[in-house]
Amino acid sequence: MKRYLAVFILMITILPFSGNIFAQPGELYELSSIDFIGNNEFSDSDLRNVIQSEESPLWLWKFLDSFTPFGSPPVYFDSLTITVDIISLKSFYAVNGFFETSFSYSYDVDTSSKSVVLTYTISEGKDFTYGKINVHGLNKLKHLHSQILPYTDLSNTERFNQEKLQRHMNIVLTILKNNGYMLATFDSTLIIMDTLMNKTDLEIYFAPGEKYLFDEVRVEKTGEGKDLVSDELIKYVASIEVGQMYNQEEIAKSRLRLARTGLFNSINLKGVVEDTVSNKVPLKINGNIGSMNDLSPEVFIDNEFNTSNIGIGLSYSRKNFFGDARKLTLSTKFKVNDIQNFNFFSTNESDSIVQTQVDIRLLLEQPFFFSRGISASLEAYYKTYNIFETRFENEGGRLELAIDMPAHTFINLLNPYLNLDILGYDIFSEVKGVPLVTTPKSTAAILGSAVGSTTANDFFFPYEGYNLNQILELALTRTVVTSSGQSIQDSLGLKEVTTDDIGFYYKLQTIFTNYTSVSRDNNTVVGMKFKIGYIQTFVGGDELIPPNQTFFAGGANSVRGWRARELVPEDRVSFIGVTNPAEDNIRGGTFILEGSFEYRRKFNPDFGYALFLDYGNTWNGYSEIEFIQIAVAVGFGVRYYSPFAPFRIDFGWKLWDPQNQISLFERAFWQAFEFHFGIGEAF
């Protein structure tokens, strides 16, 4: 049989369809459904995302659109879009390796309901796989072949995919630009179709150009602070030397280091192509430097303690503090915690207690510490807050380093830290009706590190990749417990009794999240979270672990069928026989198991919804875990994706309540309900 070869050039050709506009003037028919027949390789939803025609939304969205900005208007049938749809479908199939696909269409009209069902019939044909691949222009770059080959050597059993091919060519370009080839370009790809063998032979052309070195670093400054920051400091932080090979990735890192100083309103680094001489190129750093003093009032919302909190604050920053790009920040905040659960009209006293917090911090940031690849921050803090009726005072200091990790390593987050944390609070109780006040005060010296790996592609709405974060800590604690009150006076004849104990423990915590897009437009995502943590004492008992270092479950970012800190161990830790009040949940557990599954969908760029299932609980030790003690919640939420952060409202129900050993179906529906307001996605 004779072998036929054809050179394939992707073109958009306007097809001479003779369809008529169905709807007459003043007569509109909704496009109720778009169906596909014969599409074996791609789902209906994939194909709907390709074409211009859209199905009319459900009645609920049309109803909301009639009086709010949150719905969607009806969509009407227009036969003129069929031509565009078929062109789009042809292009979609071609770039995915189906070059011989044919299409036809029909539509059914229901005059009684004034609706139309549009159907596309598809004959996909055979798919084309990769054949011979020849790469031109890189023959002289033998030292880079090992890096480039994985992206140009495609399996001959794999179906042709133009998007993947383009992605691989972009990676090759990045490799070239990271190895001195500043002007490297991807010229073109010639696709030769073998219609007999269903193969696509590729001729790929690159133009790498010359290999460049930096021969000069220029600094151009503008802005009101331009005379207060030296060129030498900017060059030092950028960390690009004369004679260094051009490297696009290093330029991006330098820009990040400079931006991290906070000195610049805007910063840009680039090679000055027009001033190249031979294979030498100058690097220009162009920055707009703002004021060295900032005074910033703020109104904020956060999710500390897994609750929704609102407050006001004021911060003062001094940039380039004593030179070397240091930044000194003094901030103070006042906020009300767990605002959505405060009930002005409740007869339950615990529901009408305002949970407030005052927070004062002094922060010194150094963009380079020991070396330019390590930044540091030194913080002193004091905060006082109450959880229900218990008032806490927390103070301390923290030194944290951020180490720049090499490119293409699995671990891309490494932040060791040293933390001195002091926590004090009062426990009010009675012994045989006589008042007793117990005041524990814990001082913890904590040496730890946050280690992580992340490939998630978006901070606000990730649809691909994962986050893996681990916390490793060793802590030495001193706990002083002072007991006073009439009970001590009567039994011992003393005003107060003090005990002093030393504890030593380690803490491990792992959080893994994963995101997978389940639609071609990446607006539908399935997310998964798994969290596990454990605290084990070497010296002393669990009562010597400060309460703010233990694990809590429940709340806006946890198991959403429960309020924050509601899921704590039933066996409570005591001090010299005095147990924390059950209603305040002062102390959490030493073991946590928690997770979530979430289905997220954006139905337009600004709004979306989510369906979720959460599970988890805390225990005092892993030996206490029982399967029936794992709390399970289900629910749904709505999302508003603002330009600076997502806002969410979640409605959760207790599917299985381990505290009462009952399911959702064994109690009143609204008794199992919790409402949460949050900033950002739950994970």
Describe the structure in brief.
This protein is mainly β. The protein is built from eight helices and 30 strands.
Write the layout of secondary structure elements.
Blueprint: E1 5-8, E2 30-37, H1 44-48, H2 59-65, H3 81-95, E3 102-110, E4 115-123, E5 129-136, H4 145-152, H5 162-177, E6 185-194, E7 199-207, E8 213-222, H6 231-238, H7 248-260, E9 264-271, E10 280-289, E11 293-302, E12 309-319, E13 327-337, E14 355-366, E15 374-387, E16 390-403, E17 413-425, E18 427-431, E19 434-454, E20 464-484, H8 486-492, E21 496-517, E22 524-539, E23 574-575, E24 578-579, E25 591-604, E26 607-619, E27 631-641, E28 646-657, E29 662-663, E30 673-679
Parallel strand pairs: 2-4, 5-7, 8-10
Antiparallel strand pairs: 1-6, 3-4, 6-7, 9-10, 11-12, 12-13, 13-14, 14-15, 15-16, 16-17, 17-19, 18-19, 19-20, 20-21, 21-22, 22-25, 23-24, 25-26, 26-27, 27-28, 28-29, 28-30
Helix pairs in contact: 4-5
Domain POTRA: 29-125
Main location: membrane
Subcellular location: Membrane
Structural account:
The structure is a single chain. The protein is mainly beta and 683 residues long. It has four domains: 5-123, Ubiquitin-like (UB roll) (Roll); 129-207, Roll (Ubiquitin-like (UB roll)); 213-289, membrane protein fhac (Ubiquitin-like (UB roll), Roll), CATH 3.10.20; 405-679, Porin, CATH 2.40.160. It is 12% helix and 47% strand. It contains eight helices and 30 strands. The chain has helices spanning 44-48, 59-65, 81-95, 145-152, 162-177, 231-238, 248-260, 486-492, and strands at residues 5-8, 30-37, 102-110, 115-123, 129-136, 185-194, 199-207, 213-222, 264-271, 280-289, 293-302, 309-319, 327-337, 355-366, 374-387, 390-403, 413-425, 427-431, 434-454, 464-484, 496-517, 524-539, 574-575, 578-579, 591-604, 607-619, 631-641, 646-657, 662-663, 673-679. It has an 18-stranded antiparallel beta sheet that branches. The chain has a four-stranded mixed beta sheet with strand order 1-6-7-5. It has a three-stranded mixed beta sheet with strand order 2-4-3. Strand 18 and strand 19 form a beta hairpin. Helix 4 (145-152) packs antiparallel against helix 5 (162-177). The longest helix has 16 residues, at 162-177. It is globular, with a radius of gyration of 32 Å. The two termini are 59 Å apart. Mean pLDDT is 88; it is low at 1-25.
